[in-house]
Each structure stands twice: as structure tokens, then as C-alpha cells.
Amino acid sequence: MGQITHCYATKCITKYYIKVTKSRNLQVV
Predict the structure, then answer these.
(1) pTM exceeding the 0.90 threshold for the entire prediction
(2) CA distance 4 to 24
(3) Predicted confidence band of residue 29 (pLDDT cuts 50, 70, 90)
(4) d(Cα 27, Cα 15) in Å, to the nearest integer?
């Protein structure tokens, strides 16, 4: 159960990081 939660959290963090990176790229360009 702990591993599943960790994996889910990692996916959420990755999605959020990609979202922030894309928005930053849009602002810079």
C-alpha cells in the first residue's frame, strides 16, 4: 500500500513539474 501511494505521488509530482515547465517556457518565449 505504501509503494502504491509513493508511485501515485511521484506521478502527480511529475505531471505538476511538466505543467510548470511548459507554462514557464510559454512565458519565456
Answers:
(1) no
(2) 30
(3) low
(4) 18
Longest dimension (CA), the chain: 42
Distance separating alpha carbons of residues 2 and 7, to the nearest angstrom: 9
Amino acid at 12: C
Report the alpha-carbon distance of residue 8 to residue 25 in Å, rounded.
26
CA–CA distances in Å: residue 18 to residues 1, 2, 3, 15: 26, 24, 22, 5
Residue positions counted in the chain? 29
Q: What single letter denotes the amino acid at residue 13?
A: I
